[in-house]
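Quick illustration, no need to memorize.
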Amino acid sequence: MEIKDTFKTIASPSSEIIFKEKNSKFFGYAFPVTTETEIKSHLVKLRKQHSGAVHFCYAFQIGTETIYFRANDDGEPSNSAGMPIYGQIQSFGLTNVLVVVVRFFGGVKLGVGGLISAYRTASQMALDESEIVEKTINIHFQISFDYKNMNKVMRIIKEKKLEIISQQMEKSCQIEVVTRKKNAEMISNIFSNLFEVKIQPI
């Protein structure tokens, strides 16, 4: 069974889109995020930027192995905003992404059906504006060994095209390398079988 070790996300924040429905204006944005702190800071900026707006509805999904998501209606009727936005994140197959739709009320009520449709459209437009990229899920390892074993360790790192993140070369050496998840077990086994070399995931 092949290990799935890629995920799709967006390369950079989308440009602002605007969707109008019965005098209401919906501004849509998509941001690449990996933490809730980043999510909060994007929301704070948008609240400042659109101080006259009534609703800041959003959904996000973060994580690759363990998925964490949230959908927020921000005062709109239950499930009329956050979930339609989250539905678009799912239909694009994305993670590590935040989509925010800011609504300026235009005086005409849209009803729940109208809201669902408007929030869904605005988030779809924002994601359509985004460059979608595929990234790999990577595993970091620390390799520990004595200096005399340097050559054999470096030879494998080179052969297997491992990326070195950091290295400390003294009498006892430590190198941090990164590899795609699907190669992790193989890499771990190769180094574990070397005499006087230790490897552990970090």
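Helices lie at 36-49, 82-91, 111-128, 150-159, 181-192.
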